[in-house]
Amino acid sequence: MLHERFQAVDKAQLARRFGAAARHYDAHARFQQEVGQALLAQLPQGQWGDALDLGCGTGFFLPALASRCQQLHGLDLAPGMLAQAARRGSGARLLCGDAEALPLADASLDLVFSSLALQWCECPQQAFAELHRVLRPGGRVLFSTLLDGSLWQLAQAWQAVDGKPHINRFLGQTRLREALEKSGFETPIIEVRPWHLGYGQLAELLRDLKGIGASQVNEGGQEGLGGRARLVRLTQAYERFRRGDGLLEASYRVALVQLQRA
């Protein structure tokens, strides 16, 4: 890697996990779709030339993007996700690849859209440098990513059970800005939004996380629930986060970011 590593990620395992989730991903991706729609709403009006949906997943946003550009690429690390994306009929050229080593030529894109994909990078600054490399002068990037503090309720509940990490690490806002600036994006626009979801039971949240393939990927993680007894303890520990409306709250901190290459 050219830059400091933020986390150790087994890319092959990550691709398998998301690929295995591909067929039922959309049924569990309410939050991901909401964030992507919010990001899409920030896309300036008009037609774009060559565009990329980075971390396109099942291709949920490919049709909307295809209507706004002349040539669209969809890239994902997981072949299983790309197989689902191919069924969208968007006309996008689908590529299997890594955000930290984009299989695209220098200065070949006018627009990059990426929603909730870059938080899985081993070295975010390397990915941002790749975005800078493939953009043409004046090219734009719109991306969303998770910040530290996301799923803090689940993290605290796990601490009460076994004191071990079960939640992925995410960049803080200051570190995100520093990584972007070091990658060549001098004036990033970063909007941070809290996102609060409600679940009737903890099992519903856990099913969503498993259903989208977003279980622990950081080094040293404690995978799985480890038996019914620990799940019972986790459920009990999470009860203190039940809201007045009767739902259990799961909170995220989302960064909506706009970049432009000089």
Automatic annotation (TrEMBL):
One of its GO terms (molecular function) is malonyl-CoA methyltransferase activity. Its EC number is 2.1.1.197. One of its GO terms (biological process) is methylation. InterPro entries: BioC, Malonyl-ACP_OMT, Methyltransf_11, SAM-dependent_MTases_sf. It is an enzyme of class 2 (transferase). Keywords: Biotin biosynthesis, Methyltransferase, S-adenosyl-L-methionine, Transferase. The keyword Glycosyltransferase does not apply. Residues 52-143 form the Methyltransferase type domain. Pathway: Cofactor biosynthesis; biotin biosynthesis. The keyword Zinc does not apply. It holds the Pfam family Methyltransf_11. It comes from the Bacteria. It catalyses: malonyl-[ACP] + S-adenosyl-L-methionine = malonyl-[ACP] methyl ester + S-adenosyl-L-homocysteine. Converts the free carboxyl group of a malonyl-thioester to its methyl ester by transfer of a methyl group from S-adenosyl-L-methionine (SAM). It allows to synthesize pimeloyl-ACP via the fatty acid synthetic pathway. NCBIfam families: BioC. Belongs to the methyltransferase superfamily. This is Malonyl-[acyl-carrier protein] O-methyltransferase. It comes from Aeromonas bivalvium. The lineage of its organism: Bacteria, Pseudomonadati, Pseudomonadota, Gammaproteobacteria, Aeromonadales.
